[in-house]
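for the recovery benchmark. tokens below, seq after
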């Protein structure tokens, strides 16, 4: 028997977000140490509040 939608939601782990200093450390590392081509994407996501759908 397939689980109900509420059973599936109950099994999802809690979403943990980074603090401001953690996010800034990631962005700095991503830009300066990793030299990631996706840095502009990460910065856009961080500064616009874009989030994954929870639906």
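predicted aa per position
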């Amino acid at each position: 028997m397939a689980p109900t939608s509420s059973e599936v939601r109950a099994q999802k782990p809690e979403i943990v977000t980074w603090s401001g200093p953690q996010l800034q450390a990631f962005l700095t590392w991503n830009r300066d140490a990793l030299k990631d081509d996706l840095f502009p994407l990460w910065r856009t996501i961080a500064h616009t509040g874009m989030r994954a759908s929870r639906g």
